[in-house]
Automatic annotation (TrEMBL):
GO CC field: cytosol
Record GO terms (molecular function): deaminase activity
Family: Belongs to the RutC family.
Protein name: Reactive intermediate/imine deaminase
Amino acid sequence: MTAIATKDAPAAIGPYVQGVTLGEMVITSGQLPINPETGEMPESVEEQTLQSLKNALAILMEAGLSARDIMKTTVFVKDLNDFAKVNEVYGKFFDDNEAPYPARSCVEVARLPKDAKVEIEVLAFPRR
């Protein structure tokens, strides 16, 4: 297992890494919607969803993978009433990256770090 680190995603805010490789598989830690350039988090759930996906993609790209290689995501939302908004941005992200939709779980949680509205983790494996 090898840790992945990129400046194109926010640094870990605790005792963990941005992601790891296990052979060809890549597993990211949950990605908060923090812009790695500014350190800020957008306000809307739509912008937060997109930023979290961009952060996860940056980690995959550091490992030589792309959005097309995402096999599974877990989406954590603070308010499941935002599900339709998250779903719209999520679907557009994969469509824009010409990537097939992966398997997914989406769960409502009581609270996320930094009071984020969304956190997303991904598991990827090179498609052949």
